[in-house]
Amino acid sequence: MARRILIVDDEQDILDLLKYNLEAEGYETMLASDGLQALDRAKNNPDLIILDVMLPGKDGWEVMRQLRQNPGTQRIPVIFLTAKGSEIDEVVGLELGADDYISKPISMRKLLARVKLGLRKARSVEQHQEEIL
Question: Whole-angstrom Cα distance, residue 133 to residue 131?
Fold first, then answer.
C-alpha cells in the first residue's frame, strides 16, 4: 500500500511539482491550497504532511498548532517547506512540533530524502509503540 502525503501550498506550480515527483516515487498525494483545506484533508490520516507557512485562511503556524492539539492528527509527521528561511522561523516551526523544516528553494532529491526519513521515523515509532502494548 502506497504511503499518502498531504501537500499544502498556495502556489499551484509548487503543488504540481511536488505531486509529480512524489507520485513518481510511488507515493499517493493529496493537495490543499489553504490552511482550512489542510486541516480538513488531514482528517484522512495522511502518512506525512508537507506544509507551507504562508497560506490563505489559516497560516501554517496555526495549522501546525491545530494538528498537534487534535488527537487524531497529532502524530502525523510534518515537514515545513517554506520561503520563510530565517533562523527564528525555523525554530518556531520546530517548537510548534514540526519534524523537519526546509527553506525554499530546495533540491527535489533533498526533499525526497527528507520525506523518506520522516516516514521511516514515524514507522519506527509506530513499531516501538506496538511492541510496548
Answer: 5
Say whether pTM exceeds 0.85. yes
The edge-to-edge listing of strands for the beta sheet with 48-51 is 28-32, 4-8, 48-51, 78-82, 100-103
- How far apart CA 116 and CA 76 sit, in angstroms, is 14
Environment class of 127 (CB within 10 Å of its CB; exposed 0-12, middle 13-18, buried 19+): exposed
Q: What is the dihedral of CA 105, 101, 123, 109, to 10 degrees?
A: 20
Q: Using one digit for the tens of pLDDT, what is the confidence trace for 5-31?
A: 999 999 999 999 999 999 999 999 999
Report the C-alpha gap between 65 and 97 in whole angstroms: 8
Query: Has residue 46 got a pLDDT over 90?
Result: yes
Q: Does the pLDDT at position 133 exceed 70? A: no
Which of 6, 84, 68 lies closest to 41 in space, CA to CA? 6
DSSP code for 109: H
For residue 27, CA distances in Å to 49, 66, 116 come to 12, 25, 10
Eight-class DSSP state of 73: T
